Amino acid sequence: MLKVDLKYDWERFHAHYQVQIDQGITTLLGASGEGKSTLLHLLGGFLPGRGVLDFQREPLLALPAYKRPISTLFQSDNLFPQLTVWQNVAIGVSPHLRLSAEQGERVAWALEQTQLAAKANAYPQALSGGQAQRVAIARVLVRKKPILLLDEPFSALDPALREEMLFLVKQVTEDFSLTTLLVSHLPSEALLVGGRVILIEQGRVVAHEAADVLDSAQTPIAFTQYLGESKSSTS
Amino acid sequence: MFVCIGAFSLMALLRYSDVAEWSSFLSQPYLWRLIRFSLWQALLSSLLSLVIAVPVASCLFHRSFWGRSFLLQLFSVSMVVPSIVAILGIVVVYGRTGWLAQISGIELPLYGLTGILLAHVFFNMPLAVRLLLQAYALIPSGQWRQAYQLGFDRWSAFRFIEWSYLRKALPGAFVLIFMLCFSSFAVVLSLGGGPKSSTLEVAIYQALRFDFDLNKASFLALLQVLICTVIALFVYKLAPVNHQDSSLLAQSRFPIRDSYGAKALDVIAFLCVLVFVLPPFIAIFDPMFSTQFLQTLGSLRLWQAVLVSLKIAFPAAFISLLLGLSFCVLARYCMGKGKLDIWSTKLEQVGNLILMVPGLVIATGLFLWLRDFGLSFSSSYWIVVWVNAVMALPFVLRCMMPCFYQQERRFRHLYSSLGVQAWSRCKIEWPLVRSAVAQAFAFALLLSLGDMGVIALFGSQGMVSLPLYLFQLIGAYRLEEGACVAVVLILLCLGLYVLFSRIVGGKWHAQG
Asked: Which residue ranges does UniProt annotate as crossing the membrane (chain B) (predicted)?
């Protein structure tokens, strides 16, 4: 279980996140500018926060990003364009690219899992958007970190592909018992992957429910306003 | 226009040449030694500068420490310190009775290759560091964020991230430094120590000033242009192009995992800086506190020289800036206009071409050309101004081009859709480009202020600029007095540099 009680101040934005996140997928919803990505950056160790951040009772807050049990998929810049697909995945195991035989097998397995084995020697420029993000997922697989953070990594993909990628994430989360946090601005994505949803407003967690409440007749009051907004903004 | 003048000056030189005699030059062993030495010292100087610059740039990029910004400023200044002043500083530190000899008893054979290398590294290592840091700035911060999460240490970061960007910047930096060293004049003239270690550029000067052998001078000049062109073409063929990968992130810094090895390397890199760059600087400012300083300040000749220098530098900088601006605007106009597109890079290359043509050659050609029109020595003032302006052009372009290009790329469609043109566009752009323009002007001013080459050729009784005065003093072994003049010169440079880059350029917010 991931226990979060974090404060972060930036100019006139004062965030205070308090939430406990269980294993499985949790979708972070909220309008833009409300602080979804900020929470992810705090968890990942890319922003300095104050407070408590525990995972399975282990404190994480004092650790630098590379020592936290976390893999992050960002919206962009997940791959090094100067490295091949294989190198991009393998670098998740060893920053020096010196792999043991067993590690090499794991990289091959991860490429297999993400259907990229044929592209191992290609450079990211030669990949489509969906393939590029699959490389990043392959790296998540070889890193074997129990927490996975996704900061709208599929928002640039077309709907069918996005759906496919979300299913992949869901499957990976279940297969490897990950604690996955997915930032999204589409309630439909939360419904697609299931699990739980968190609504964030003004740097605060205002609701934490099972994902299917979004679709049910009794949508909690906190969500109705957000859903109304997002409906009107998409129309 | 300036291309025409360059071509004219070359042609004028050629008219005085006698091709038949050239073959006899080619068979002289002295010439071959000259070429060999010119190439050898330029190669060594540029390699040494780059080898030191890579770890220094990496260290400066990754660490923030007390004095970092001071060091960066020092670097930008050391590029434009008048060469003669720096040479004086180097002599004071490494010379026969210099600090090094006094402290440790080691006596370097300063006059010859060692001295030339020391001086060239002093000038060009900071230049290389700045060029490399520009390459570092191209690395999207998403890569650093990724590196941070994956736990890269400095070596991995260098190997997988930095190197692929540096690799593309290094050939350009190498060519630039190689050219500068290859055609280096003042350094070789004063630290070369005789015909054994002389370069083509110095030989041109000797042929012109002492022998007035136009034929030989034009031959040597052509040879120099030829060699530089061949090398530049060769390297640019090999060099891959650097371009910014699009990144949505604002620039921010993520700490890379530290280690003892990385720390040690940084310390070593730093010591190199301490050895090469700092002591001459300290040595230059040292005489400020002696009594001689005040006496020198009182001398009339000093102030005359200051006046002459300013009279040359200001018009030269203005002309250079105007030339640079018209280049930028032209190149930009050509950008994205279909067929004309290739011309934008061509124009920039033409601007850089000037580095290949020795200033002395342009000056002489221009002089001969004007003489044909019946204008004689009274025009030498304008020749000096003009040549200085042209010589500063590559640096001016380097300062302004990226900024102007960026403006064009980002806002072209916005401007054209709003119908903002010409003067109104200038007004909108001014706050964004003013810092680059001011920087360019300051560079041009300083380069002309510190110029030693052209003035050495054309200087006469009535026209002794500050660097030339200094050179004369050193030549007369009045080192003490020379040191004081050097202080005046460098203070003048620093003052003007700060004045223009800060006050005209405004705050750095424009860079954002």
From this structure: 43-62, 74-96, 108-133, 169-191, 217-239, 260-282, 302-330, 350-369, 381-405, 437-459, 479-500
Interface probe with A: pick from B145, B149, B258, most Cβ of A within 10 Å: B149
Q: Which residues of chain A does B247 touch, with a Cβ-Cβ cutoff of 8 Å?
A: 76-77
- In whole angstroms, give the CA distance from residue B293 to residue A77: 58
Give A48→chain B minimum CA distance, Å. 11
**Domain spanning B23-243+264-285: which superfamily?**
MetI-like (1.10.3720.10)
CB pairs under 8 A between A and B: 66
Tracing tokens 């109104």 back to the chain, one arrives at B424
- The whole-angstrom distance between B203's CA and the closest CA on chain A is 46
| Whole-angstrom Cα Rg for chain B | 23
Residues in B closer than 8 angstroms to A70, CB to CB, are 149
Nearest residue of B to residue A149, measured between CA atoms: B149
Q: Can you name the CATH fold of B292-512?
A: MetI-like fold (1.10.3720)
Tokens, residue B229: 């062109």
The reply to whether residue A45 touches residue B140, judged by beta carbons under 8 angstroms, is no
Q: A71 contacts in B (CB within 8 Å)?
A: 149
Which has the closest alpha carbon to B344: B331, B358, B330? B331
Residue of B140, B141, B149 lying closest to A66 (CB–CB): B149
Structure tokens at B1: 């226009």
Place of tokens 């055609």: B183
Nearest CA in chain B to A80: B143
Domain residue limits, chain B:
23-243+264-285, 292-512
Tens-place pLDDT, residues A14-34: 899 999 999 999 999 988 888
Per-residue tens of pLDDT for chain B, all 512 residues: 555 555 666 666 655 555 556 666 666 777 788 888 888 889 999 999 999 889 888 888 887 777 777 788 777 777 667 777 888 888 777 776 667 667 766 666 777 788 888 888 888 888 888 888 878 877 888 888 888 888 888 888 888 888 888 887 888 788 878 888 887 777 887 777 666 677 787 887 777 777 777 777 777 777 877 887 787 777 766 655 544 444 444 455 666 677 777 777 778 877 777 777 777 777 777 766 666 666 667 777 778 888 888 888 888 888 888 888 877 777 766 665 555 556 666 666 666 666 666 666 666 676 666 666 655 555 677 778 877 887 787 777 777 777 777 776 666 666 666 666 666 666 677 777 777 788 788 888 888 887 777 777 776 666 778 888 887 777 776 777 777 888 888 888 888 877 877 776 655 443 33
**Burial class of residue B421, CB neighbours in 10 A (0-12, 13-18, 19+):** exposed
Same fold for the pair B23-243+264-285 and B292-512: yes
- Burial of residue B243, with CB atoms counted within 10 A of its CB: 0-12 exposed, 13-18 middle, 19 or more buried: exposed
| Interface ipTM | 0.80
What are the distances in angstroms from CA A177 to CA A57, A145, A174, B96?
A: 17, 10, 5, 74
Cβ-defined contact of B149 to A75 (cutoff 8 Å): no
Q: Is the pTM of this model over 0.80?
A: no
* Contact (Cβ atoms closer than 8 angstroms) between residue B71 and residue B60: yes
